[in-house]
Amino acid sequence: MKTFVMLLPILWVLVALQGVTSHEDHPLARIAVHNAIAALDARAYIKASPSVLGSNGLNQEWITLEYGTGNPSNDDWVGVFSPANFSAATCDPENNMVTPPLLCTAPIKYQFANRSNPNYKRTGKGSLKLQLINQRSDFSFALFSGGLRNPKLVAVSNTVAFTNPNAPLYPRLAQGKTWNEMTVTWTSGYDINEAEPFVEWGPQRGQQTRSPAGTLTIDRSSLCGAPARTVGWRDPGFIHTSFLKELWPNLVYTYKLGHKLFNGTYIWSQMYKFKASPYPGQSSLQRVVIFGDMGKEEADGSIVYNQYQPGSLNTTKQIIEDLKNIDIVFHIGDIVYANGYLSQWDQFTSQVEPITSRVPYMIASGNHERDWPDSGSFYGKKDSGGECGVLAQTMFYFPAENRDKFWYSTDYGMFRFCIADTEHDWREGTEQYKFLEHCFASVDRQKQPWLIFLAHRVLGYSSGDFYADEGSFGEPMGRDSLQKLWQKYKVDIAIYGHVHNYERTCPIYQNICTMTEKNSYKGPLNGTIHVVAGGGGAGLVKFTSLQTKWSIFKDYDYGFVKMTAFDHSNLLFEYKKSSDGKVYDSFNISRDYRDILACTVDSCPSMTLAS
User: Fold this and answer.
1) Mean pLDDT across the chain
2) Domains of the chain (ranges plus CATH)?
């Protein structure tokens, strides 16, 4: 009876999910949870091994599940739960989308029992290998019969845990507010009343110093709605950020994360390294990778969020393999697709750690991070699952003046990047519009010739079917407000996510191509090249059958773009597929400073005829 009572909270989680209707495409929505019952079966079992993880210092390990039942079916499935033993009594009472008993968390992921066991239905025995990451709590695994339409909880496993669930994990580098500052953000289970967080760092093989870190966290009251405040809630731990200042340009630094416990003990991460950013205008080889809408994917094949990011692991893999040839990464919105299921943020930061721990990883805000009704977002939809920007603004650092106003600029050598927040109003006369104009106007194009505009939603041009159906071929009102800024300040390239495919336009202004050349641009562009790079990993979006004169290259596949500035006059742009890392579209720009100064339509200041 005691075991039965302990299992009820797990069952109650499933029942509660019945009321979460803001994201029907979550995989647990496939389960007819209103039919779920507890049916513990003495003949059924599930065992996880090893039960202790991380003894070798790893924070990502594989475990084996062995399970069986006396009445097997191909519809049987296994759910992963963390914390392992959770009680409804600890839930926040606010949950107007479900009825009591109230629930604390949802399963992290699930898998069918016969996935790697084709004889499961005949033998009633099976096994699975699952990957777990350190997420500041323990794990248990539940076996269900009855399929997804009539689930019955028949067995629950032993507990599995990491040796130090509070360890400092998943460092995320980002550029600071000045060119010679790098920030390091990481997650741990240590509050500031338990330990002092810091980074120990210095030049490679040089003297090391320590910089303190600030600490933030998130509670339910800072989120906007369900499922983030209800069944999707999971304690996100403590988020620490340290500022490493007065860096020498292009110098390699090493660093490690530390926590000094109040008993004098030190907790350390492994050692990492990064290369400091070049001085603005500095001429050196500078390589930038940009994509949107990647999300996360489970390496063990488990079912999470309707398998919505099938290309995510490939994109991550290709970037990791080429990391020695990449200096900075921009992920322009729709970062995790957690949509209110907070455990997914840990899983994403674990997936991209080999990238974020080595090069600056700059993010932009997308609809799946920010949008929620009556929360100040420009769009009143529920795409964030109640997160309303809080997770993105806390889990990652970016050099904005106000973290809720997700627009900012950052320099990298010969590049100036102006990053927009499409989930806040960008139209003429708004605070963001004034910021963008200042970002464009304040750059010295003789020293930083490559002016790049980044945003999540397509404020320029796209042949995505839903934009074409609207007749706008881009976000309504996007070009109307911003194209005169792009033209006036001669923005070279504008890159977007949101539409899950790849597309490149000609240099264009007011729907008219300003050059006929397609791959090798010499001299003034006379317009802006618009690129959709939303194929980072999420489910692909079809193109319209309508043909436009401005669309030069389309690809219905997963991929990312890379820009290489060789000097102040030569830039190479490449589109690479995530499946093989090969280049499938490219162009180059070759010009001098006088070509940037040259007059074109609507880009010249007034001139006097006086001598």
Assistant:
1) 90
2) 33-162 (2.60.40.2840), 280-597 (3.60.21.10)
